[in-house]
Amino acid sequence: MSDLSSAGTAMSGDSSAAAAVAGAPSPDEGGKVRSASLWADARRQLVRDPIFMVAALYILVVGSMALFPKLWTSQDPRDCDTARSRIPPSGDHPFGYDILGCDYYSHAIYGARPSMTIALLATLGIVLVGGLFGLLAGYYGGWVDSVISRVMDIFFSLPFLLGAIVFLTVIKRQNVITLSIVLVALGWPTIARIIRGSVISSKDLDYVHAAKAVGATNGRLMFRHILPNAIAPMMVYATIILGSFVAAEATLTFLGVGLQPPAQSWGIMISAHQVYFLEDPWLLLFPCGLLVGTVLSFILMGDALRDALDPKFR
Predict the structure, then answer these.
(1) What is the pTM of this model?
(2) CB count, 10 Å around CB of 62?
(3) CA–CA separation, 172 vs 212, rounded Å?
């Protein structure tokens, strides 16, 4: 009986080892099955990262300002009275009044929407355009890769800020849509090059050759097998570039080629009150603080996401 028991224990141990070698989920110390998914591991690491959580909370707050501004203020940012011009902050009006006598706090709340909208539209655009061209260039190679790479080089040779100023000056219609289109036109090559490199390193893996051997089409190979394994670096870059596009909108508006009054944005607030910094510094400090906090939060989230998705940092 003891021999049979020992043999059963040995067979059980061999089965567990075989399951582990086969890649099956293994129980952790608490007896729960732990997922071996890269995204599941990344999610667990991000939840335990205080920097990521604080940055994500700040972005949620700013996002709620953009989506539901009336949750944050009942004041109308267009209700202005020049008699209240540049009244400093107080308990009832924490940001004071701007040069036109408008409530500055409500202006800051409503100013989050265009900044965030432009950043989201531009990021979505470069992900779609750059991701598609990078996928095609990396998968097909040859003349397809050469043509797309040369087009990317042309856009890379054009300075981002100068190109945006030229395009917006020619268009002469500065709104959320035109700014987003210009940012997409100038920003897609970087993400295309990232995806291209990831696809090149993934398309020669064994599972891709196995799928090709059983008759998978090129479309299925690209979007079902290769792209999911090449999407991690694109997600990291997209998170970081969100903050960059928020800053780009403010920069272009400050230079006079971005959004124009009566539109409301943080860039307009900074541009309209730059000359009053020495006399009333709070007119610049409040919008600049919101802008810097938003850009920094996206960058910190991108860095944390990169560390979570890279096994070398675990």
Answers:
(1) 0.82
(2) 20
(3) 50
- Tell me, letter by letter, the H, E, C secondary structure of the chain: CHHHHHHHHHHHHHHHHHHHHCCCCEECCCCCEECCCHHHHHHHHHHCCHHHHHHHHHHHHHHHHHHCHHHCCCCCCCCCCHHHCCCCCCCCCCCCECCCCCEHHHHHHHCHHHHHHHHHHHHHHHHHHHHHHHHHHHHHCHHHHHHHHHHHHHHHCCCHHHHHHHHHHHHCCCCHHHHHHHHHHHHHHHHHHHHHHHHHHHCCCHHHHHHHHCCCCHHHHHHHHHHHHHCHHHHHHHHHHHHHHHHHHHHHHHCCCCCCCCCCCHHHHHHHHHHHCCCCCHHHHHHHHHHHHHHHHHHHHHHHHHHHHCHHHC
How many other β-carbons are positioned within 10 Å of the β-carbon of residue 208? Answer: 18
Conformational region of residue 25, where left means phi above 0, alpha means psi within -120 to 50, and beta covers everything else: beta
pLDDT tens sequence across 217-238: 888 888 888 888 888 888 899 9
Angle between helix axes 232-254 and 112-140 (nearest 10 degrees) is: 140
**Rounded CA gap, 52 and 2, in Å?**
54
Instruction: Round to whole Å and give the CA distance between 58 and 138.
Output: 37
Q: Give every CB contact of residue 225 below 8 A, 6+ residues apart in sequence.
A: 207, 208, 211, 216
Contact 25, 36 (CB under 8 A): yes
pLDDT at position 298 over 90: yes
